[in-house]
Amino acid sequence: MNQAQSQQAQSFDLIIEGVGYLNRVRLVTPKKGPKYLACTINAMMGRADSVEYVSIDCIVVGQIAKLAIDQLKDDVDAKHKVIVGFRAGDPKPDFYEYPDRESGEMKQGQGLKARLLQVTFAKVNGQKIDIPLVPRNAAPESDAPRGDDDEGSPGSACGDDSSPQRVPAHA
After folding, report:
1. How far is CA 145 from CA 60, 148, 161, 162, in A?
2. Which of 9, 10, 40, 136 is the most buried (most CB within 10 A)?
3. Could you tell me if residue 160 is inside a domain?
4. How far apart are CA 15 and CA 48, in angstroms?
5. Burial of 8 (0-12, 13-18, 19+ CB in 10 A)
């Protein structure tokens, strides 16, 4: 196997960045598998004078993101307005049904499911909150192996411990 073949992309990342309201922070205990931290972000998009929202149901995978979400959980539970900047990966469409608040009829909803990689800032009721942040230009903090040599290995700038040995698509 030559150098070019060994550096061929083994996976591709689709990353979305945005700002949105943090909701439904919860610890999920599935019947099979380990517990995991999840949250919903109602991401804002469009013009400031006519904002639209996209619901993103996230599994929190970034190590530092887990610390930040844990720190913000009490404010979310207290129904404070928590706005976060975020980076999420691998979004997929999600369709679901829910009962209408007024009529009780079942309605269809849509949104995204994704992995929350990083929280870039947080505000609670308009006040900036100090949260743990991923250091800029720092080595990845994941304990996952990065291959035989560390030179040229991208690791994960988000502290994402779910995908060992990821190679950038441009390699």
Report:
1. 20, 9, 10, 11
2. 40
3. no
4. 23
5. exposed
Q: What is the pTM of this model?
A: 0.72
- CATH at 41: 2.40.50.140
In a domain, 169, yes or no: no
In-domain check, residue 157: no
Average pLDDT taken over every residue of the chain = 82
Domain count, the chain: 1
| CA–CA dist 12, 6 (Å, integer) | 16
With respect to residue 166, please indicate whether it lies within any of the assigned structural domains.
Answer: no
- CA–CA distance, 18 with 90 (Å, rounded to integer): 14
Count of Cβ atoms closer than 10 Å to residue 78 Cβ? 10
Which of these, 108, 29, 9, 22, lies nearest to 70 by C-alpha position? 22
pLDDT tens digit sequence for 110-149: 999 999 999 999 999 999 999 998 887 654 454 444 444 4
Q: Are strands 52-60 and 36-45 parallel, antiparallel or unpaired?
A: antiparallel
CB 37 within 8 Å of CB 80: no
